[in-house]
Amino acid sequence: MRGPKPTARQSQEIRVFGGYRNQNDRMTVSSLVPLETRSKPVQKRSQERIDQILAAAGDLLASAPTEQITTTFIAERAGIPVSSVYRYFPNVFSIYNSLFETVSADQVDRIIAIVEGVDALPQWRARFLAVVQYLRRSIDEHPFHRPLLKAIFAHPELDGAKERMCNSISAVIADRWRRGEDGFSGADPDIVATITMRIFLSVEAYLVNENDPAVRDQYFEQLVINLESYLSKYLSDDPRS
């Protein structure tokens, strides 16, 4: 049964702070939550302020439960007025979105370096393992990455950020295969790359709340075995190696 319709004031609070009184409110407003920054940085000072806000959000994600983090809390940690936060970000989800996209951009750059590093890792299996191990390390070693992923996977408002990250990494891999690298053949490279990434993210979504490293390692081992078996149907070692 649906709860009572929120008042105009309650609706505003829901949109701004990302709080929900119940699941029905969540479904009602999820499509209304804006994620884009309010003001695109055109000056060095503006970019520095955005970086300051994102750094504060990262610090809080690493040390406080996500349900306690608000724009006001982030402003206090950054040592700036909350109005300065709202100048660039309409809500806490927008901050998470920007923080996640910053992390994802760094990951894509690193993955490009790995998959193109044929001289260092001539066998496709070695490059594949290097990519998934890098992604795994970045999740486990970065102080706020796991809590940020928890927020990304838990809130449908942030599905777009997850999709963009998946698509970016898939595109990098598929572009290589489309050129015939890694001996790719037998299927559409975009489909194979997308399936690979979605399987990886599905397992990570399952494990994101698992606190026992030993359990995570066991699942990761099986993930690698199964993905390698899947990819071996389409990849072969480059004759040049």
Written description of the protein model:
- The protein has 241 residues and is an all-alpha fold.
- 67% of the residues lie in helices and 0% in strands.
- It contains eleven helices and no strands.
- The protein has helices spanning 8-17, 23-29, 44-63, 71-78, 82-88, 92-115, 124-141, 145-154, 159-178, 189-207, 213-231.
- The longest helix is centred in the middle third of the chain and has 24 residues, at 92-115.
- The protein is elongated, with a radius of gyration of 20 Å.
- It starts with 7 loop residues before the first helix and ends in a 10-residue tail after the last helix.
- The model is unreliable at 1-33 (pLDDT under 50).
Structural class: mainly alpha
What is the end-to-end distance?
63 Å
Radius of gyration over C-alpha positions, nearest whole angstrom? 20 Å
Q: How many β-strand runs?
A: 0
Question: Helices and strands, in N-to-C order?
Answer: HHHHHHHHHHH
Averaged pLDDT, please? 82
Instruction: Note the overall shape.
Output: elongated
Ranges with pLDDT <50 over ≥5 residues? 1-33
Number of helices: 11
Main beta-sheet annotation: none
What is the share of helical residues? 55-70%
Strand % is under 5%
Write a brief structural summary.
This protein has 241 residues and is mainly α. The chain contains eleven helices and no strands.
Defining traits:
241 residues; 11 helices
List the helices and strands and how they pair.
Layout: H1 8-17, H2 23-29, H3 44-63, H4 71-78, H5 82-88, H6 92-115, H7 124-141, H8 145-154, H9 159-178, H10 189-207, H11 213-231
Helix pairs in contact: 3-4, 3-6, 4-5, 6-7, 6-8, 6-9, 9-10, 10-11
